[in-house]
Amino acid sequence: IDGRKQWVTEWKYEYGIPVVERRLSQMTEGDIIGLPEMVQLTDGERQWNSTAFRPCDWLIQACQFPVMLFLDERNRALQGVKQAVFQLADSKVFYGAKLHNDTHIVVAENVGENYQVEQSDPAEVSRWVTFELEPSDEEWLKWAENRCHQATIEFIRQNPKALEHKGTFEADKKYPDRRSWFKLDQECQRLGIFDSDDKSLVGKAGLLYTLAGGFIGPEWGSRFNKFVQERDREVSAKDILDSWKKAKKKLGKGTHARL
To answer: Residue 237 and residue 92: Cα distance in Å, rounded?
Structure first.
C-alpha cells in the first residue's frame, strides 16, 4: 500500500490483509481498555456525568477493517490483560467493541518448562484452535538463504545440531538458537568479518571468536570461528582463474586448491 496510511481510510482486498501486532507482555489493562473521558448522559430532562473509555487505535482498526490481529507472548502477560484476550477469543468482542467479521486473531506463545511463563487453564485452551510449531532445519536454511552469509548457511548445513539446542538448559548458560544465529550473522556482515583477511577479526583470538561465543555459546562459537578461518583459505578453480595472486595468498602453506 502506498503511504501505509491509506488502508485506514480506504480498504480494498487487493491490498492484502494487514497485520496488527501487539505484544501482550508489554501491555497493561489500560492498553487494552483505552483511556477514560468524562461524558454527559441525559434522559431529556436530567443529566449525569459519566466515564466512557475510548478504545485504542489498534482495536478500532481491527473493528473497522479486516486485519490479522497478532497477539504475541500471551502467557507472559498480566492477568488482567489475559482476561481481556479471553473475550476476544470467545466472541471477537471486547468492552462493547465488536471486531470486523473478517478480522482473524492469532496468539503466539512459548510453552514448556524451559520458559518462565504462566500455564493456560482448560477454559483458556478451549477457546483456541492450538497448533504446536517446530520448524525444521531445512525450513530455517531456506528462510536464511537471502538473509544470511553463505558461511553461516554452510556451517549449519554441515552441523545441523548447532542450529538449536535441545535437551536440558543450565541456568545462565548461553546456547545456540535460530534467533542468535541470525543476529550473529548480521553483526558479522556489518563488520565485514566474513570477507576479511584481518587476523584481528578472524583468528584464534579474533573478534569473531569473541562474538560467536557471546551469541551462540563458547562450544559452538569456537567451532564456527575455526570453520570461518578454514573457509577463508579454500580456493576454487574460479578464484585461480579470476585472480591468481589473491588465490595464492589465500592458499598459504599446507592448503590446497579445491577444483
So the answer is: 62
